[in-house]
Amino acid sequence: MARYTESVCRQCRREGTKLFLKGDRCYNEAKCAVMKRHTPPGQHGQARARKASEYGTQLREKQKCRRAYGVLESQFRKYYDMASNMRGITGDNMLCLLERRLDNVVYRMGIAVSRSQARQLVTHAHFNVNGRPVDIASFQVKVGDVISVKEGKKSSPYFEALKNSAKSSKMPKWLDFDTEKLEGKILALPTREDIDSQINEQMIVELYSK
To answer: Which pLDDT does position 198 carry in this prediction?
Structure first.
């Protein structure tokens, strides 16, 4: 499977905003690459900025969203196609589908510090969904699903430390997670108001609808 292997901080610099791809490090201004370098990566990054075209602005918005959730172009296009065939607003539907990915849910519950770490935990088969093992990061959760750490994994140092940590205050209201039981539940489907990402999804819809 294809995957990005270079520094993820380059992606934040390219988009000119924090995508929070490295967890706690992104909150440290002294270590954040975007705060230290305000230009895109590469030898031409410091060239005089040119006014972006409408297409260029839409493309950057799509790339920002795709990179934030850590999905490939082909995967991202599939989410758009699925969203466009659903009832409701296409942009909202697309973000909802991205939020319902299992790796994103693990991240939102505070089990992992970044989506990439959450994806690694999922693919290494650390979780059950409704009592059954699931190791597919793109697995779509639904209302009522229970995500739990496997019994054999709970004794690992990582999850032992998680038990002793306080419940995250940043957890979305559509999720719940019990740090003592290492078990979470999907209380509702996410809405646009529940998603704190600084993404203009309408630009992405306009880009794909051309």
So the answer is: 82
